[in-house]
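Backbone-to-sequence.
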């Protein structure tokens, strides 16, 4: 069984930065495509970014392109989401997700999910 644990969320002012981390345990992270998603109250879970198993492929939602960067350190079984120039509309619970077969923007394409970490951006 794979467990994902996110950390790094918090309260930040608009224009600030945060780095989220997701530690993969149970199996080596190199087995998995990884994604970051977010969900604001009353809204559907939405794609933020994804990365391939070796980090060679990355994709982003259009609204985050240029502000967010996804990366991974497979030696540490950890995936990161560096978020810069944060906006109040980035406020949400952020989740990491893992799947062995799919590199996708669709939440339904991921088999494993973390519990989420809250990001709140004040104006």
């Amino acid at each position: 069984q794979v467990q994902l644990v996110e950390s790094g969320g918090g309260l930040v002012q608009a224009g600030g930065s945060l780095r989220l981390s997701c530690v993969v345990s149970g199996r080596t992270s190199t087995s998995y495509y990884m994604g970051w998603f977010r969900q604001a109250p009353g809204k559907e879970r939405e794609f933020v970014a994804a990365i391939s198993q070796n980090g060679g492929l990355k994709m982003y939602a259009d609204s985050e392109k240029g502000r967010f960067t996804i990366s991974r350190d497979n030696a540490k079984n950890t995936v990161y989401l560096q978020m810069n120039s944060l906006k109040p509309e980035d406020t949400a619970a952020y989740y990491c997700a893992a799947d062995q077969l799919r590199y996708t923007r669709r939440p339904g394409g991921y088999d494993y999910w973390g519990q989420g970490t809250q990001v709140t951006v004040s104006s």
